[in-house]
Amino acid sequence: MSSFRTVRDNLDSEDVDVHFHSSLGEGNFREVVDGTYIGGNRNQQRAACKAFKPEYSYFEDEYYEHDSNIADKAIEFAEEWNGFCQVGYEIMITKGEVQYHMGKKWLIEPFINYYTKFTSNGGWISGNPNAEAMEAFSHFTYKRSGGQLIVTDLQGRFRTDHPRNRGKSKQRYELTDLAICSRRRLYGPTDLGEKGILSFFSNHECNGFCHMDEHWPKPKREQTRQYFPMTEGTSILASHEASKLQASTPYVFTGNGVLESVLEEDEDYDSDFM
Q: Can you tell me the distance from the alpha carbon of 265 to that of 164, in angstroms, rounded to the nearest whole number?
């Protein structure tokens, strides 16, 4: 097991100044604004403050009910990954906390600079070279779960070493807002079920990160299919529509923007603010 610290959280900083009018960007169903931690280990550090738009607040309870479980499960896999991956390709996962400010729920977490998207929960994979290790991590979670799930929607940044760094390397992936697609759809509205798994494998090509010590299993090629539009946004689905995510159903999601009952969210941060 690696001694690398896998969790990036708020530490003991319990309060934050939410800059309600300082937008970092928005998706279809959430907004992100700037913030500053007050007190504790992160005093005066920058925070990302995320909240649902009023018209989609009905997703809040189900989303936040599963958010911590998604992070914990992803951290569990990341700890295993960090134990054998190439040095400099370790994963640190952000785990935020829900707080109330001005009568509204906000997910507060440490800010990530140079934010980018590596994969979506609908099968899209970036052409960025740094996405190869992230593809492999999703494949690794499929292997370690016995084919029951994948950790996906991988986004954040690949932190590279600064030339002035001396001693311990700081190169790593810093990820946030992950999703899990599971066959039993156990992980809330961003869990796109079997179709999320099969959509990922319809696009994933194994690379050097996937075969470090043994062959990693994956679904048969003829079983895979792209069930969602090839966009980098996160998709969210109401629970009463979950039957459409079973591979045994012929339903394929089409269109862009609002996909009938599936809402597509753009990446959380606008790169212009990095």
A: 37
Q: Where are the alpha helices (DSSP H) in the chain?
A: 60-82, 131-144, 193-203
Distance of CA 266 to the CA centre of its chain: 12
Residue 254, judged by CB atoms within 10 A of its CB (0-12, 13-18, 19+), counts as: exposed
Looking only at the bridges linking them, the beta strands covering 155-159 and 172-175 are antiparallel
Q: Quick one: pLDDT band at residue 182, thresholds 50, 70, 90?
A: very high
List CB contacts of 4: < 8 A, sequence separation 6 or more: 82, 90, 92, 172
Across the range 50-61, mean pLDDT stands at: 91
DSSP states of 31-59: EEEEEEEESSTTTT-EEEEEEE-GGGGGG
Residue 215: the pLDDT is: 82
List strands edge to edge, sheet with 30-38.
15-26, 30-38, 46-52, 104-110, 97-101
Copy the structure tokens of residue 99. Answer: 């707080």
Which CATH class name applies to 61-94+114-273? alpha beta
Please give the pLDDT value at position 200.
98
Rounded Cα distance between 116 and 114, Å, is 6
Please choose, from the candidates 181, 92, 178, the residue with its C-alpha nearest in 3D space to the C-alpha of residue 145: 181
Beta bridge partners of 91: 173
Does the pLDDT at position 216 exceed 60?
A: yes
**Rounded to two decimals, what is the model's pTM?**
0.91
Domain boundaries, the chain: 61-94+114-273
Helix (H, G, I), strand (E, B) or coil at 213: coil
